[in-house]
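Objective 1b of the project was to move from sequence-level analysis to a structural picture of ligand recognition. The entry below was assembled by the postdoctoral researcher (A.K.) and checked by the PI before modelling. It contains the amino acid sequence of the target and the SMILES of the bound compound, flavin-adenine dinucleotide.
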Amino acid sequence: MTVLDKLAAASSNPYWSTTVGDSTACPPPASDVACDLAIIGGGFTGLWSALKARERYPDARIVVLESGKCGHAASGRNGGFCAPSISHGVSNALARWPREAETLIRLGRENLEALAQDLDAFEIDCDFELAGKLNVAATPWQINGLRAMAQNYNRFGIDNTLLEGEAFRKKLDSPTYMAGLFEPNYGLVNPGKLVAGLRKCCLARGVAIHEYTLVTALRATEQAIVLRTQDATITAKKTILATNAARPLLKRLRTAIIPVYDYSLVTEPLSEEQFTSIGWTGSHGVADSGNQFHYARKTADNRVLWAGFDAIYHYGSNCDPSLLQRPETFKLLAQQFAQSFPTLANIRFDFKWGGIIDTSARTTFFSGTACKGRLTYAMGFTGQGVSASRFAALTMLDLLEGAHTERTELMMLRRRPPPFPPEPLRAVIVSMAQKRLAHEDRTGHRPLLLRTLDAFGIGFDS
Ligand SMILES: Cc1cc2nc3c(=O)[nH]c(=O)nc-3n(C[C@H](O)[C@H](O)[C@H](O)COP(=O)(O)OP(=O)(O)OC[C@H]3O[C@@H](n4cnc5c(N)ncnc54)[C@H](O)[C@@H]3O)c2cc1C
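Corresponding predicted holo structure:
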C-alpha cells in the first residue's frame, strides 16, 4: 500500500469532533447586550473563565462570544496531553525564570490536580486519565537530554524513571527510539469532550454563549468595554480576551504571538496484537525529544494519534482555513509512522487535520490588563495550553478583581514575551531558527543563532 493509499480515505475533520454528539449552536445575540463580564473566545481559556467566574459571582451576567462553534479551533484540535505544568515544562521554567522556577513547578502540579478535581465536581466526562508520558530519545544526545531532565525532576521531587534496553522496549518497541524517561503524573484527555463538557456546564449555569459571533472591534469608555459584533453591541463592565492564535483585538499584543500550524493523523482502530507488536501495552502518551518532535497517544477506541514534527509558519501570519490541510505534512507524518513502527506499516489513517498554535517567544502564556483594568487577556500557550488554560482563567479573574495573588505576581505572566519583528524580517527569522533547530536535531550541536537567542531568553517551539 502506498502512503497516499493509506491517507486516501482520511476525513479532514478532527477525530475528537466525532466522539461528541452534535449540539445545536447557540445563536448570535438578537439585540444589544449589557453584561457584567464578556468573554471573547469559546475555547478552553474562555470557557474555564466563564465557569470559574460563575463560581465566584453567582448572580453576574456572563456572556461568551465565539466566532465559530465553541472548540472549533485549537481546543478541539490538539493532542490532549494534559501537563502538570504551566511553564511548558521544568527545563523551560529553570532556563527562563530560575528564581521562580520552584513556584512555577509547584503551581503546575497543583493546577493539574485541581483540574482533575474540577472534572469530577462538574461531572465532565472527557476520558481524563493520569496515564503518564514517555519522553523518548532517538539519538545519543537526546538520551543525555533525558538524563539532564531526570536530574531536574529528581531535584523537584517529580516522579520519573529512565528506561533503557529491555525495560524501555516494554514501554515502546521501535527502531527509531533508544531510551525514554517515563513520568507517571501526566494526564491525557479527549479534548473534544473536554471543551464540549465545559460548554455544557457553562450553559447549565446560566452563562450566555453566542456562537458564530465574531467580535470585530473593542473600545473602552469610562465605565465599560464596548464590543462590536456583526449585528449587535455588547457593553460589558469587564472583558476577557481568550482568542489564542487569532489576531489580537488589542493592538499592543499583535507582535507577542505568531500563528504556527501543527498537524495530526489518527489511525484506524488497532488490535491488542498490533499494540503488543510495538511494545505499547500501557495507556501512556509518547513524545520525542527533538526540537521537531512527534507526539503520539492512544484513543479510547484504540486508535493512535500521531502528530507534530512540522511546525509551519506562513508569511504575514496568514491564517486561512485552507491551511488546516497540508498534504505534504500528512504524507511525511505517515512515512515517519511506518519507519517508527514497521509492524504497523500497512495500517490506514482515518483522520488528518491541522490546528494553529499561538507561539510566543518564551513558549508560555502571558497575561495582563488593559483599559484601566477592565480588560484582561491570556495567550501564548505555545502548544501547552490544555491544562494551563485553566490556570490562565483563574489568573485573569484575579486580575479583573485587582487582587494580588500568587498567580498575578508571577514574573512569567507579568512580563510580556519579546516581540516578533515585522515582516519580512519575521518570516526570515522564523525560517532561520527552524533550519537551525533541524540542524541541532541531526547533529546534536546547537548553532550560534540559537545560543544567541537563548541568551536573550528567546525560543521557538510549537
Ligand atoms: C494541533 C495542536 C496540538 C496541540 N496539542 C496540545 C497538547 O497535546 N497539549 C497541550 O497542552 N496543548 C496542546 N495544544 C495547545 C492547546 O490546544 C491550546 O493551547 C489551547 O487549546 C488554547 O485554548 P484557547 O481557548 O486559548 O484557544 P482556542 O481553542 O483557539 O480558542 C480561542 C477561540 O477564540 C475565538 N476567537 C478568536 N478571535 C475572536 C473574535 N474576534 N471574536 C470571537 N471569537 C474569537 C476562536 O474562534 C477560538 O474558538 C495543541 C494545539 C494544536 C493546534
